[in-house]
């Protein structure tokens, strides 16, 4: 492990709690910063109205009104539910420089953000793994 900025998140979970709560794919993505295969995610094509929550802690992270069809293979959003809903960290893994998106409450890995979102909606694409989220239909 490289030195990383240690941030204390308001919600903390033990490994036992996490393993009991999450299936193995969700655990891999949320806690080991994995990525689900594109075009396979449960919420990729979801167009229902509601709130997307962090699967670990239930923190509301995105609203369906900010979801758009980016064609990238993962659920994509133009902005989070609130500024504090998420945390952003630089990610230098896989020979790329990316901005990692983490849950603002528990620090679990959600996805990445890229500067190629719709120009008329801020120009940012939040690219989020379906398995990182639960969807609460309105
Ligand atoms: Zn969380």
TrEMBL record:
Active site per the UniProt annotation: 127
EC class name: oxidoreductase
GO cellular component, one term: cytoplasm
Keyword Cell division included in the entry's annotation: no
Keywords: Metal-binding, Oxidoreductase, Zinc
Cofactor comment: Binds 1 zinc ion per subunit. The zinc ion is important for the structural integrity of the protein.
SUPFAM superfamilies listed in its UniProt record: Mss4-like
Catalytic activity: L-methionyl-[protein] + [thioredoxin]-disulfide + H2O = L-methionyl-(R)-S-oxide-[protein] + [thioredoxin]-dithiol
Classification via InterPro entries: Met_Sox_Rdtase_MsrB (IPR028427), Met_Sox_Rdtase_MsrB_dom (IPR002579), Mss4-like_sf (IPR011057)
HAMAP family referenced in this protein's UniProt entry, alphabetically: MsrB (MF_01400)
Protein name: Peptide methionine sulfoxide reductase MsrB
Organism (species): Algoriphagus faecimaris
Lineage: Bacteria, Pseudomonadati, Bacteroidota, Cytophagia, Cytophagales
